[in-house]
Amino acid sequence: MDFAAIGTAAAEALTLASFIGIGGGVLLGYVVGVIPGLSRSVAISIAIPMTFYMSPYIAISFLIGLSKGTAAGSAVSAILLNAPGEASSAATALDGYPMAKQGKPKTALQIGLIASVMGDILATIILIFVAIPFARVALLFGPYEMAAILAFALVFIAGLSGGNIFKGLAAGGLGIILGTVGLDNQTGLPRLTFGYAELMDGMPLIAVAIGTLALSEMFIQSEKLRYERGTMSVQLKKDDSDRITWPIFRRILPTILRGTGVGTFVGALPGLGPSVGSFMSYGMAQKAAKEPELFGKGEPKGIAAAESADNAVIPAALIPLFGLGIPGNVSAALLIGAFAIHGITVGPLLLRDNPELLYSIFAGMILASVIMLVLGWYGLMVFAQITRVPPHVVIPIVIFFCLAGMMLQGYGTFGLVILMGFALLGYLMKKYDYSFVTFLVAFIITPMLELNLRQSIILSRGNWEILLNRPIAMIFIVLYAGRAGDADCAHVPQGQAPCRRTRCRLKLPTEEDTMNRRSILAAGTALGAMLAAPLALADSWQPERPMTMVIGFAPGGSTDIQGRVLARTLEEYFGQPVNVVNQPGGGGAVALTRFMNVEPDGHTFMFGVQLGLTFSPIVTETEYDIDDFRYAGTMVGGQFGVVARGDAPYQSFEELVAYGQENPMTYAQQLPMDQAIMELIADQEGIDLAIVPTGGGGGMAPLLLGGEVDFAFSGGTHAQYTPTGEMNVLAFLTRERSPFYPDVPTLVELGYPYAMDDFRSFFLPGGTPDEIVQAFEDAARFAVEHDPFVDVTVDNTLHPIVFMDAAETEATIREIRAANEALMAD
Amino acid sequence: MPRSDFWSGLVVAALGLLALLWVIPNYAGSNPFARMPPGLVPSIGAWLMLICGGVIAVKGLVQMLKARIVPLSADLHWDAVAWAAWPFLYVAVAIWFMSFIKITWFGAFLIAGMLILLGERRWYMILGCSVVPVALLYVLSVYLMRVGVV
Fold first, then answer.
1. Which of B19, B23, B36 has its CB closest to that of A454?
2. What do you get for the CA distance between the two ends of chain A, in Å?
3. What is the DSSP letter of A183?
4. Which residues are bridge partners to A321 per DSSP?
5. Which residues pair with A238 in a beta bridge?
6. Mean predicted confidence (pLDDT) in A464-476
7. For the residues A397-419, what does the mean pLDDT come to?
8. Between A490, A499, A581, which is nearest B33 by CB?
């Protein structure tokens, strides 16, 4: 331990600026968390631009405080309105709402707050002492272990269905089916989407949670008004007994400690989220209780279990982040973006290179927990007043916030229809006593379970004996079998079919390499453009009101980070505020589908990758095509690569091929295109290759670093790991070498005629006048010379600056689309 | 209860059957080379629904036979059905409206209309309860989230 650094950190944490920053973060998080549908990831993405002018320590502590405040705030609406602020608070509502209805809202809120703060502080302490030295333990949990844990969690929580086990299992069956909606993670083909691009990313979780819990509850409450008019569904009496007492605290303390353990364990494993933690903790508390039948009827232990685990996940998710640079969940991924904006690379080198900052953040986290307790304790007295409002007033307002929450998330009318559908489903499930808890848990867990199960089957190559070498997985399988027996649940068989790999016979069209026309950081041209830009703007189109930038990917990724900085660049260029809206799904296809109908007046535009145009229409029927948009300039190039661990026995692609000709190999794919290319090469070189699907770059890193796969595709994730030597780029799939890895060849240079390219450009709706397209082209010229944008793109996300004008951008999109169509024809 | 179990079990089993016979074969996609076909996991869910729905329906039927309850009842309270249904229709119409008008612009009318239908008659309550949440939404979306009016 570096005690000098710890002393400096403690001093910085106790400054006034620190109190204001962290306190502001917690308060804002509390307010956002109370509104149904606004999750902590939304809160962080809202707040990231606010941190641009803060010091790195204050900025990160502010965001962590915000994250903690959101988690605590979401419990307030879950307890008082049965409308969880986010999905992970759904477990809190199971007992919190009944307790509030019984006239104990303050007690319920206080139990939730104390469990939150205790879970949070204990998990933070664990983070401080184990983050760096023990983070690698998380890598021992590969797909086998994760599949076993998730199967255990599913069966465990199915036991919560209470009453009729068949109704619980039937509800779970429906949750499983709906949980599989979206792009299949191995083939990349749409599954159960019925042709809707909006469903390519799956059913929106928040619509499912709000629909089945909050909106359906409002419909039930309004129905009750017919018979119980004048009575209040949740009452707040002047009752001195409505507070947490020492006997209650003593009773829930073991539950809090258990919940903290569960939350820390779940949070430390990359990929599992707070919802899994809170429901798992709730299930364990019910199982351990002497009177399990009290759960769901206002049992204090139910609130304590869910809240302690939910809040313990937040610091625990930072264990793999600080220890390995791997984000444990969406919020942690967003924090990586925030770190990048402030010029900090998270990972094992953070302690070596910047110990004061790391310890300052730890100190800030403890301070945030204390502030959360104080704010929450006095704030809940205010929040509890909500219960004084009669139900006929609460119902319309909650319905309004449910609908508004979906609109704020950017789901549009389609999302509202989904919300309404799940409200009807939740209403019927409650009416006919089908367990909506089992339904929700099955819905949340199924995608993760399927992915890990599939990875396990592929990696084991059908050999179950491999489990003998995986004791952790074996333990959970034994527990799972035990629980399945207890619950009389049918063990789900895993069907397998012998694998024959796809044989592709495709080659990239031999076109002249148009990239020669492009300039990477062509300083002279761009400098001229920059000087000319203000002059040109004087005569060109100018926006008349605030603008909206649509990004077709979730917050936190490299596209989002670049987009948010680009928004500030454009504010400077156009002189109007630029708001950023994330509409993730289908590699940008969801955003493009919505975007094609916006007014072509230049005030709404897209920034993002071209995959939604060059790839998505090939694998699914989309409502749009290339001709439906106008293209106004490219600013960033892609860097798709093939990566291996730094200590792998092959340091180049040629060595990998030679190794593969002697040994069976495993490859982690992310897109059907990179899978097809690797299968072609394996076929050509005689490599016995098993392809493992992953959930994107965040899923690839643990698999590769944990030694589960031999090599992998990377869309840019490697930028965090190559400086530390943990990853090695063997070859690029792009047609040109990356300027950041000039010694690494492309596949084309190695003699394989396959390539995949992607660029980040401005998109405008079809019918946009030429003068507006020209204005955006000029803005793109300005951006590639604007220091903040270039710094973040080049230094923090390691993407090359590539400028293309409008005509060249469109030509490139058409060219890449033709190449991809040829590649995917098989 | 036996009657509702019987009918709900039948509906669940029918949905499971529909998923197995039509939805999954037509919309789950296929990949003969995959070790785990894309339709496998949804099929497991559908089988669960079919089997469990069937068991629930049969148990409900047996209980009905024992208690001599007929599967259908003419004792339907249509006014109760209408009272239960109107909030759904109200929100459905609001969602349809939202495809034309932003919720911020008509949110106050949405809340006020429902308040009146639920029996609120005090003008200051209707005004305050309908305007304040919309104003909060406006501040949140325009000034905090900076996504503009939603």
1. B36
2. 57
3. E
4. none
5. none
6. 69
7. 83
8. A499
